[in-house]
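Hey all, sorry for the wall of text incoming. These are the two entities for the joint prediction.
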Amino acid sequence: QKEVEQDPGPLSVPEGAIVSLNCTYSNSAFQYFMWYRQYSRKGPELLMYTYSSGNKEDGRFTAQVDKSSKYISLFIRDSQPSDSATYLCAMSGSNFGNEKLTFGTGTRLTIIP
Amino acid sequence: DAGVTQSPTHLIKTRGQQVTLRCSPKSGHDTVSWYQQALGQGPQFIFQYYEEEERQRGNFPDRFSGHQFPNYSSELNVNALLLGDSALYLCASSQDRAYEQYFGPGTRLTVT
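and here's what came out:
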């Protein structure tokens, strides 16, 4: 069983819709939760991070963490064609700068104009 | 301010050969991590370098080795290449905070 599970999609939604992306994990030691966006043939770009449980909002993006269920989500409001990319969740066990990131497989998202 | 840079962009090698990939971290960063991303998969952690030493290693064989230089740049070496080593190799740099790992564009390695 993988430590981090993520539905690979692909997911296609019309422009303007709300997008929900999710990951589940099995390692209780994870405390930091990140979402990365990766365009085709590019490196991942950090979108948001959250520590422990709770919500965090940044513009059209909202990240949620439920540690009791070992479940994290990323919501994208008013989705735009430029949001079309692969979204990767990532997790680490500490904030000391020497912890590896454990990634999900990524969800490929397409926003249809 | 230049971000993380990697070279070369693309590389084609034959089974059994050796390859060296290079990474320059973002200005001010002292920690470099390497990841392997196979097609359709998430990045997998290879190892991390800090103060010119390997600080942490993922589940990769000894064919994968690395080095960090005094200017914090880093190299990833892979010996005895296998077809399964074909992937996008990503370098990420950071300082202090694990979540602030900035990735480079990657080097796409094809082994034939």
